[in-house]
Amino acid sequence: MTSTSGTLISEPPPAVAAPEPVERRRPRLADLGTPLLYLLSLSTALALAGLLIALVGQSPWDAANAMYDGSLADGAAIGQSIDQAAPLLLVAVGSVIAARAGIFNIGQEGQLLVGAAVGAAIALFTPGPGPLVLILALLGAAVGGALWAGIAALLFYWRGVAVVISTLLLIFVANQAVSYAVNSPSLLREKAVAGQVTTSQTDMLAESVWLPRIGEYPDFNIGAGIFVALVLAVGTSLVLVRTRLGFRLRMLGLNPKAAHRAGVGAVLVGGGALLASGAFAGLAGGVMLTGNGHRMQDGFADNVGFDGLLVALVARDKPMLAVPVALFFGALRAGGGFLSATGVPRYIVAVVTALMVLATVFPAAYAEVRRRRTAGAA
Amino acid sequence: MRPSPQASDTAVTASRPAPDTVGEPAGAPLDGPAEHTGAASVLTVPVVQLLGIGKRFGAVRACDDVSLRVRAGEIHGLLGENGAGKSTLMKILLGLVVPDTGRIVLRGSETTIADPSAAAAHGISMVHQHFSLVDRLSVWENVVLGDRGRVDRDRARKSVREVGDRYGLRVDPDACVEDLSTGERQRVEIVKCLRRDPGVLILDEPTSVLTLEESRELFTVLRRVVADEGKAVILISHKLDEIVHATDRVTIMRQGRVVARRATADTDVRALAREMVGRELSKWTAASAVGALDALIEPGTGEPTGGTAVLDVREPEAAPAPKPRPAAGEVRLRITDAHARAADRRPLLRGLSLEVRAGEILGIAGVEGNGQAALGDLLSSLLPLDAGRVEVCGGAVAAGRPGAMHAAGVGVVPEDRHVSGCVLDMSVAENLMMADLSSVTSRGLLSRRRMAERARRLIEEFEIATPSPDTPMRQLSGGNQQKVVLARELAGRPQVLVAAQPTRGLDIGAIEYMTERLHAAAREGIAVLLLSTELGEILTLSHRVAVIHRGAVVGEMDRADVDTERLGLMMGGQAA
Q1: Least buried of A16, A50, B44, B192, by fewest C-beta within 10 Å?
Q2: For testing contact with chain B, the best of A261, A264, A373 (most B CBs within 10 A)
Q3: What's the burial of A179, exposed, middle or buried (CB within 10 Å: 0-12/13-18/19+)?
Q4: ipTM of the complex
Q5: Where are the transmembrane segments (chain A) (predicted)?
Q6: What is the pLDDT of residues B78-87, one digit of tens each?
Q7: Distance from A308 to chain B by nearest Cα, in Å?
Q8: What pTM was computed for the model?
Q9: By residue range, what is the domain housing residue A246?
Q10: Chain B contact for A15, CB < 8 A?
Q11: Does residue A254 belong to any structural domain of this protein?
């Protein structure tokens, strides 16, 4: 693609020093199309979703109400949505860092899980004052995620194993490893209390190491995780745009050869970006652990890693754009959870959520295709 | 790679038939812009007629009432500087661009060409300047790419061989494209076109990536295509010499208009140059731009004097001729016995040694693929050495460590500037500062103000034509991208400047500019290393010439002692 567009564009402007005049053309439907396109694709998705729900014998109207009730209806629901958004945003920001450095980390689901397990181990077994243990647990979660991503980095820079493949496959390894830890009494499995059968989950964390919550149930209340995520999103955005490190990272992603020439070490900067993205995913796991469930059990990750990756995709690798997108996806997740509680089968909920995702991705994808077409024609 | 013992001849001497064999009806009106007379007799209905074509892009008139007639059995030159509208015109013929006005008449019947597949159906095929090959695929796979239906490997390989035999295009169907030299890649592109048996073959600046020898072979092939098969060839070029030697008729464009049409036999390099540029050129620029080596070779004198047969001399003020070697400065760059291999263990450098002194331009002459790229990569920190050392100003530099060469004071204008010289998706300002970030950062933070200041200063100093410093690099023309890279490298105050193929693909104005800048760099005391496969460029610019062959420097001489016969032999690997 690079070479074609280079050829196509390099020719026309004659060698005059004057800047090329801005091209004026009549406004077309496509120009005011973006909001329209979003509207169209969202309503199509909604219509399809309604149809599906009707097909399984439920009322689409009730389902829509349930979605609304679960995500936006009152303070508690909005708080739920925001709580869901926090780990998504963390994962997304991490994905953005790697993607900007030209590395496609898709193993957040596993990094998140490993991070949460490390966090749980620290939170459960470290004595000390609660807040300190909480911070240690979160840091430990980040380190755990980073190390898990580090395996992929090592494989790539030492042996040339593609990052996409290794990070993806490491998810399955992480699943098994964490499941083993949670099932082993000598590791993380909950301690037996006399007269009680243990299940494959960890003990509940002590309340002192829970992330603080703001507000009171049943009114608006949210965990502190979203603030951690917001601060890191803003920070990442600033680092990428305003600092030397961010510049070097972007350069590496856009043109590794030119970057090497200019002294950007791919192993250091690229590997660093991969580790950072793992750390963000691990931290997301830590936030989920200390903020919501307070214990690990099967299905802990619950696709947050993949959904976060989607957030980054929809936000086109812009950390600040990831904030509203994460909130939207958080609302979908919260609403979806509520919907499945009303009797709509779980898989339909998954399909409805997927339709919503497609609806949000479609306009951007369409615009991109159009852009390439017109670039190809000019 | 055969040696080119006739290197002293003017650049290209393909087998052009004697003028009388050219299908040129006597008295056919050829000149005069925008002439619309029914020139074609019944015998020679043009294969392609573009009549009164107009096309605007915004405020730029890319084509303005352009007419072009091409007959079967001729090589038709389309001459003009970059931006003259040649490419747009060809894109219209290929259905890539829809014209605003004008008609397209193919074999006497009026046609509209809506898209490239329609053009292909009409038998119009083009070899683009930038190849569209998939490096990882083999030759035959590339050739059948885009075909419909089942892939028949044996038939595809056979057809590649057949086309190759028919036109003398030697290429191994099973070779992997990434292992091929540029000349061989071009052959693959041509085979790709010819296999579809087109009536009209368009070549866009085909020799800009070829050596003399390869250019000659190409024109022999083209001559065979038109003479034996009655096809028409349109040759887009800004090199006057090859237009003169390879074409039958020529249409000259300037600023979107046709300014002249000539039978090639009735014109010469000088007249063509004047018409293309619209003014007289200094001898040195012109000679370098058109590759007219005769003009450059006057053994025994460092500074040639007097006019030549082809080029009129206007006293060269803008582009001074190379002086005999200036008082030799200290050695700035010393490479000793460098050995290096590619990732696939193929040897790239085999004991290369050279020295460049402050204030001199050392030209590395050689046939493409003899280690020039590796030498460029080595000095860009992209290639680690197996053995040998690189010293800059007396200090050893770790080859291959990111940024090491740059930190040591080696500036590089790479051959593939838009691939590894700049980041196309970053702005001009960002591209101007990427090599020395420290000058625009404090405590790790980028200073917008200093970035903008620096960009404005460099844009002005190096006359970079860009709408603004924040324009994406991708939107600049090739010549201006080159200027950005050069500006950045020189702004770093290098001890050594490496320029690889600095004028490849540029138009005359840009060549003039580059030539002057490189001279200025040497005058300021920078040691300049020039890597080029164009002998004309080497001879125009260098104080000293070294010849590279199979990854080593096999000979060296002062510019004043250059004897092209000997140079040609050395480039071909024969001790002389």
Answers
A1: A16
A2: A261
A3: middle
A4: 0.78
A5: 36-57, 77-98, 110-126, 132-156, 163-182, 220-241, 262-287, 347-366
A6: 988 766 788 8
A7: 26
A8: 0.71
A9: 79-191+199-321
A10: yes
A11: yes
